Amino acid sequence: NKAERFATLARLNPDTMVVVDSKHGADLLSAVATDAGITIGVLIDLDVGSQRTGVPCGQPAVDFARHVASLPGLTLQ
Q: Exposure winner among 29, 46, 76, 77, fewest CB in 10 A?
């Protein structure tokens, strides 16, 4: 799957980062990173008004950032 392919890429280049906008995506990346014994840098995609992608700004973004920061194998950038 995409998360496993990304883990392979992150092993080759530890500076690689990924953008997430859902708890499901973050949880999946955390599991793959933990299984691979690596840490993946994560950026949060914010919805700045286009309402197409991203986490809504404000408290939802803060809550999501806390969730990401709590996951093993991920580092919030």
A: 77
